[in-house]
């Protein structure tokens, strides 16, 4: 297993040779640190893209990269603690919840409303669109102030 | 499996097993908690795939399970805001919700019976 890890780590590090005798834990911690750096950059890229030009797709990207990153930080907190960064990621995720919920629920209602009840659904859909617009603006405002890179 | 990976995966699997009762109860909160635990496990499995490719079948299974639970969750949120006057739509959504949960339960049973669960 350790030889597989070393070879994998060498690939991740761009063929940087792993010193002979490096123990498994050290190799994995280095691999994790590299993974954290990559995921952190990915989240910052997603944030910037959303702030530049908000869209449903870009919001989704911020949320998914953020969730993965948060999960990584929580999983390895004892090896590579980053409590402030973790708090920032959690706060940023929370600011996007309302926009995502309004979008998903609106789309679901649009495609599942019974034809006979379309008129009843219309004001609900209008309200969801309104909430979606407000929540997306708010998420943009919050994310504009947030930075995930030092 | 490297010690660090083993520890994280075991911890996440333990959470999932503990919260699987939500899938049996089929209540909104219980399903939500189980879904979040599955999501965390899925992320851990996918992240550690480069270190241990034997995690692949479980990662795929949990991706499907999470999709089914995610659909059920979205339906739950919609059902809470649906006006009572939309009874036909409500019935249809509730049926769809049941199908999503049935699918999730089937996937969970498959996981529990599959060889890859022995890793954990």
* Category from helices, strands and their pairing of chain B: mainly alpha
Discrete helix count of chain A? 5
Beta-strand content bin of chain A: under 5%
* Envelope shape of chain B: elongated
Secondary-structure element series of chain B:
HHHHH
Distance between the termini of chain A: 34 Å
Query: Main sheet of chain B?
Result: none
Task: Kindly state the percentage of residues in helix of chain B.
Answer: over 70%
Note poorly predicted spans of chain A.
8-21
Low-confidence stretches of chain B: none
Ends apart, CA distance between termini of chain B = 10 Å
Total strand count of chain B, please? Answer: 0
Quick gist of this model?
The complex is a heterodimer of chains A (150) and B (120). Chain A is an all-alpha fold and 150 residues long.
Tags for this entry?
heterodimer, A: 150 residues, elongated, B: mainly alpha
């Amino acid at each position: 297993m350790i030889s597989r890890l070393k070879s994998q780590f060498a690939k991740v590090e761009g063929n940087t040779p792993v010193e002979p005798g490096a123990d498994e834990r050290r190799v994995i911690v280095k691999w994790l640190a590299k993974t954290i750096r990559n995921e952190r950059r990915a989240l910052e890229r997603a944030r910037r893209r959303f702030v530049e030009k908000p869209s449903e797709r870009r919001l989704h990207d911020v949320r998914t990269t953020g969730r993965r990153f948060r999960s990584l930080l929580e999983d390895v907190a004892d090896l590579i603690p980053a409590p402030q960064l973790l708090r920032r990621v959690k706060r940023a995720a929370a600011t996007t919840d309302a926009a995502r919920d309004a979008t998903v629920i609106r789309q679901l209602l649009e495609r599942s409303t019974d034809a006979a009840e379309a008129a009843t659904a219309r004001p609900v859909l209008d309200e969801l669109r309104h909430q979606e617009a407000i929540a997306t603006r708010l998420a943009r405002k919050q994310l504009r102030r947030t930075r995930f890179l030092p | 499996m490297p010690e660090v990976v083993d520890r994280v995966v075991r911890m996440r699997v333990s959470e999932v097993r503990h919260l699987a009762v939500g899938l049996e109860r089929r209540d909104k909160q219980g399903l939500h908690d189980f879904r979040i635990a599955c999501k965390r496990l899925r992320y851990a499995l996918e992240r550690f795939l480069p270190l241990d490719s034997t995690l692949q079948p479980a990662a795929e299974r949990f991706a499907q399970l999470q999709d089914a639970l995610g659909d059920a969750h979205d339906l739950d949120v919609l059902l809470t805001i649906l006006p009572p006057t939309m009874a036909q739509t409500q019935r249809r959504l509730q049926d769809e919700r049941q199908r999503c949960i049935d699918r999730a339960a089937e996937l969970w049973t498959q996981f529990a019976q599959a060889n890859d669960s022995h890793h954990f």
